Amino acid sequence: MTQRWPTVLHGEDIYLRPLRFRDRGQWNSVRAQNRAWLSPWEATVPLLNSDGDYQHLPSYFEMVRSLNSQAREGHSFSFAIWHQRNLIGQISLGGVILGALRGGHIGYWIDRNYANKGYTTQAVGLLTDFAFTHLLLHRLEINLRPENAASRRVAEKSGYIFEGERARYLHIDGDWRDHIAFVKENPSIK
């Protein structure tokens, strides 16, 4: 699938735009200021070698190149969440599979200074609409840690329905963590 990229999604108070190279300073600043806030929920890479070292994380520029390449190929779509001129978070639609499944999963993070203001819920709504309307996906998932009450509220307010538990589902904060799955189906795909 080839998707026109980059794409900008506009909401009421926010807009979603792919990261650009010139966003590096703002992205690094927001990530540094929110390191402790985000670490309990952030994906990590499991140990990969006998020395106990984690996989090398890409530079900002490598990350942006990779995200844009994945979007052009139709596998994953990642957006920065913007409020006015402020980068306040990031949201991604990953694991896009077509064929009989036609699905993907959504993940997100938000700057603690913008949490509990409805921005993440707006971002989930914009990305869900993009996935259902433009990509014609049938099913989306949001998988989150059971103790992340704020993220659960986002999924529920966005119309996602609790589907079940997933034991040791993702490597988060240095270990395999249990998750709960929320699902939304596209009513116009039969």
TrEMBL record:
Keyword set includes Acyltransferase: yes
Domain spans labelled N-acetyltransferase: 14-187
Cellular component GO terms, alphabetical: cytoplasm
Keywords for this protein: Acyltransferase, Transferase
InterPro entries xrefs: Acyl_CoA_acyltransferase, GNAT_dom, N-acetyltransferase
Gene3D superfamilies for the chain: 3.40.630.30
GO MF terms held by the record: protein-N-terminal-alanine acetyltransferase activity
Assigned protein family: Belongs to the acetyltransferase family. RimJ subfamily.
Protein name stated in the entry: Unannotated protein
Organism annotation: freshwater metagenome
Lineage: unclassified sequences, metagenomes, ecological metagenomes
